[in-house]
Amino acid sequence: MNKSEKSSPDKKSYTVTEIQQMLGVSRPTAYKLIKQNVFQSIRVNNSIRIIKVSFDAWLDSKIHGGNC
After folding, report:
1. Are 18 and 49 in contact (CB under 8 A)?
2. In this predicted model, what pLDDT tens digit does every residue of 10-56 receive, in sequence order?
3. What pTM did the predictor assign?
């Protein structure tokens, strides 16, 4: 990821590595969450992108609403 992607306020998606870092989980755990459809994701070529608004809403619900 380059510098402009990190600082872009209008970013629309996260990478698996980014959610892994934000949640402090392993790569297999990040993929497990994606497979469970706890937030929206799309496949772009050979990579997976997690929809930012979906992930942020899910994370907010976990922070303010209870268990993971």
Report:
1. no
2. 889 999 999 999 999 999 999 999 999 999 999 999 999 999 999 99
3. 0.77
Adjacent-strand bridge partners of 42: 49
N- to C-terminal Cα distance for the chain?
27
Query: Rounded to 10 degrees, what is the CA torsion of 5, 11, 13, 16?
Result: 30
Q: How many CB atoms lie within 10 A of CB 18?
A: 19
CA distance 59 to 1: 22
Do residues 14 and 48 touch, judged by C-beta distance below 8 A?
Answer: no
Contact 53, 11 (CB under 8 A): no
